[in-house]
Design a protein that fits this description.
By secondary structure, this protein is of the alpha+beta class. The chain contains seven helices and nine strands, in the order H-H-H-H-E-E-E-H-E-H-E-E-E-E-E-H. 38% of the residues lie in helices and 20% in strands. The strands form two sheets. It has a seven-stranded mixed beta sheet with strand order 3-9-8-7-4-5-6, sandwiched between helices. The chain has a two-stranded antiparallel sheet with strand order 1-2. Helix 6 links the parallel strand 4 and strand 5. The relative contact order is 0.15.
C-alpha cells in the first residue's frame, strides 16, 4: 500500500502531530517527512511502510483518493473546481441557527475568489455569522471589515486555506482541487486555540484601507 503526501499531511492534522512527532513515532527523520510532503524525491517503500505503521497504531486508516478516517472522527472529501463553494455552503448550514457562531478563515486570498465565493460569504454574513481571517502581509483586498483581518508575514504565508467552524475543519490539500472536511470536537478546539494564539500575536490592521471591489 502507498499513501500520498496529502494523506500524510491530513493524518498529522487529525492527530495534531508535527513532522517531528511523526518522526518520533515512525523512526523516519523529520527532514525525510518534510521532503515527502512537499513532493520531493520519491521515498523508499520501507519509509512509507514505517509511516503507515505509525499512523495505524494511532488509529488512522487510509483509503483511495486521499481518503482517511479515524475512530470518533468523521472525514469526507470535497472535490472539483467548486470545492470551496461546497465548504462555504456547509458553513452556512452548520452555523445558521447559532447566534454566536464564527467562521475562521486561515491563510486565504480573496483576490483569487470568483463572484460565487463572494456571494456565499455575503450569505454567511447576512445570517449574522461572525468572521475572522488571516491573509498575506501587504494584501489590502479585504472584502469584510478591516478589523476582522490580520496579516501573516510573507515568509510564512501559503494559500492553503483552512476553515474552522462549529465542530468542523476544512483542510485544503496543497494546490490540488480537493479538501478534507473533518468533524471532531477535540481537533477543532485545538486548531481554534492555535488560531487564537496567532491572532493575539499579529498586530491589528490600523489605518489600512481596503482595495476590494466588493464588500460584505
Amino acid at each position: 500500500m502507498t499513501i500520498s503526501s496529502s494523506q500524510i499531511r491530513a493524518a498529522r492534522a487529525l492527530l495534531g502531530w508535527t513532522q517531528k512527532d511523526l518522526g518520533a513515532h515512525s523512526g523516519v527523520s523529520p527532514i525525510s517527512i518534510a521532503n515527502i510532503e512537499i513532493g520531493g524525491k520519491a521515498p523508499k517503500v520501507q519509509t512509507i511502510e514505517k509511516i503507515i505503521f505509525a499512523f495505524d497504531k494511532a488509529g488512522i486508516e487510509f483509503g483511495e483518493q486521499d481518503g482517511l478516517k479515524r475512530k470518533g472522527i468523521n472525514v469526507r472529501t470535497l472535490e472539483g473546481e467548486n470545492w470551496f463553494n461546497q465548504a462555504l455552503e456547509d458553513v452556512y448550514e452548520t452555523l445558521i441557527d447559532n447566534p454566536t457562531a464564527e467562521l475562521i478563515v486561515d491563510m486565504a486570498d480573496d483576490r483569487k475568489s470568483p463572484p460565487e465565493v463572494f456571494n456565499l460569504y455575503k450569505k454567511i454574513r447576512n445570517a449574522g455569522i461572525k468572521m475572522r481571517q488571516t491573509v498575506e502581509e501587504g494584501n489590502t483586498y479585504l472584502m469584510g471589515p478591516v478589523s476582522e483581518y490580520r496579516w501573516v508575514p510573507k515568509i510564512y504565508f501559503r494559500n492553503w486555506v483552512m476553515l474552522i467552524y462549529g465542530d468542523k475543519i476544512v483542510l485544503c490539500l496543497s494546490e490540488e482541487k480537493r479538501a478534507l472536511l473533518i468533524e471532531n470536537k477535540s481537533l477543532v478546539q485545538m486548531e481554534r486555540q492555535r488560531f487564537d494564539l496567532l491572532w493575539s500575536l499579529l498586530p491589528a490592521l490600523e489605518q489600512i484601507r481596503s482595495t476590494a471591489n466588493e464588500r460584505y
